[in-house]
Amino acid sequence: MTLQNPLQVSPPTRFEGSWSQSSTRIVIAILLTALLAIAGYNILEVFNPDNFHEELRILAHHDPARTNEKDYAGQFLSAFPQPFLYVILTKAALGAGIDLVVFHKVLSAVCGILLLAGGAAAGMRVGGPVAAAAVAVLIAAQPIYQYQINSATPHAFAFPLLMWGLVFLLYRRPYALTGVAVLSGLLYPAISPVLGLCLAWDMVVARKGLTARNQNRIADLLVLGLTGVVLILLLWHQLTPVEGYGAPLAPGAKADLYPENSPDGRHFYGVFHPFAYVLHSTILQFRQELPLAIITILPLCFVGIAGYGFFRLRRRPEIIRPLLSFVIPSLVFCSLIVALRPYLAYRFVLYPLFTVLPLLFTCGLLMLCDAWRARPNFPEVATVAVISLFVISLNSVDSDRNGFSMRLDASANRLMEFVRGLPPDSLLANWPGSPQTDLIPYVTGRPLLVNFKAHYPTYERHILNMRVRMFDLIDAYLAKDIDPLVRLRCRWQVDYLVVDRDHFAGKETEPKYFEPFNERVEDILQTTEKSKMLLRQPPASAIAFQSGRFILVDLAQLIDGAGCPSKHTD
Fold this sequence. Notes:
The protein is mainly alpha-helical. The protein contains 22 helices and six strands.
C-alpha cells in the first residue's frame, strides 16, 4: 500500500467476535474497573506531597529560586544541555507561578495518562474494545512503566512517545508519526533514532512508498529527509560534551585511576549489565512474597503468549506490517547501541520491548481464549481470569516499585520546613545517598556540598573535585576533634551540617557510600569509637534545629573561636 491515502484504515480485528454483546460489555466493565482502581491509586500516590521519585534529586537546578552561587552540583547539572521543549515547558510553568514540585507531579500524571491512552488506542486498532481495555490494564498494573514516568525527567516521555509512534504506525498515519518523531527530539532525543528508523522503514520498506506507484514519493522523500536532519541536529545538541569539567569518561574507563567509575563506584548495576538489569526489573514487578516458581513462570507465560500473538498476527498484513515497522528498527538500533556503547543498552531494550509486549500479549491471549469454545462463555471467563492473575501477582500499587522510594516522614518534613527558612545563600552538607535529606535542594532550594545525583563520574576534573569534597565530608562527619569540621567550614563555606543519628546507633546503620570512599569510612570506623565522635552528640550551642533522628549543626557556632587558617579561606 502506498502513501497517497494515509487515512485509509481497514476495520480492526475483533478477537471477541464470537462473544455475545452482553459478555463483551461485562468483560470491558471488569477491566475498566481494574484500570480505574489501579491508575487512580497511582495518580493519588503521584500527588502525595510526601512522595518523591529518586530521580527528582537532579532537577532542583531547573528552578533559579532553588540555586545559589555555592551550588556546585547545580552548576554542573545545569551545564548539560536539556531537550528544548522540556526546558520551555519548565520555564513556562515557573513563569506562571507553578511550584517546581507541583509541575513535576503534573508532568508525571500527564505522561501516565498519555501512555494509557496510547495503549488503549493500539489495542482498539488491533483487537477492538476488549483488547483496548486489556492493554491499558496491563500497562497500569506493571510498575516498570510508572518508575520511568514518575521521574519527571526527559526520559519520562519515552514510553508515551514510543506508544503513540506505534499507534500511528498501526493506524497508517505516517505524517503523524513524523510529528511524534520530531516531538521526541524536542522532549527526549535518545529515542528519536528509534522513531526515525520506524518512519523510514514504514515509508520505504513496508509501504514501498518511494516507488513509482506512489505519486507523492518526492514529497514523502523530502519529509523523510527533513525529519532525519532535524532529529540528527536535536540529538547532536543533546550529545554535546560539557566544557570546564575535564575529559569525558565512558563508564569503566580508567577505573584504576578513578574507582568511582568502576562497577564498585557510582554507576548502578544496569550500566554494566543492561540485559540482566531489564530481566531483573521485570521480575521485581511481581510480588516478592509469591513462591519463586510463580515469579519465574508468570513472566515466561507472558512472553510466551505475546510470542503466540505475534505469530498469529502474521496472517493479518494490515497489522503485522506496521508492527514489524516498529520491531525491526528497534532491534536494529538496540543492536547498534550494544555494539558501540553497551552501557547505554538497557534503555533501548526496555523502552521498545515494553511498548509492544502488552499489545502482543493481549492479542495472543484473546486468540487463545477464543480458540477454546468447548464450553459456553469460556473465552470471556478465561480472559478475565488470566489478566486478573497477572494483575494480582504484580506489585501494581507498590510505591517503591513505582519509583517513590524517597518519602518524607514527619521528622524530615519538619527539617525541610526549617531549612526552607534559612538564608538563600546557605550551603548545607549531609551524608549523600540518604533517602530523605538528599531531597533538600529540590524541596527547600538550599544546595548540598555533595549531591549524590550530581556525583556522576563522567568527567575527570569533576571526579577529582567531588572526591576532595567527599573526603572532607567523611572526615568531618566522623571526626573526633574539631579540625576536620573547621576544614569543612573554611574550605567549602559550608554553613550547616545535617546529622543522622542512626549513623551512630549501630553497625547495621553505619554510613556507606561507594568506592573509593567506603575504604576511608571503614578505616575511620575501625580506629575511632563512635562514642568519641563529635557529631554523635553535638554541643547544644551548635544545634540549630533538631527533629527526631535529624540534627542540624551550625558549623559557625561549632567552630566558634577556632578561626579559619589562611590556606582554607581561598
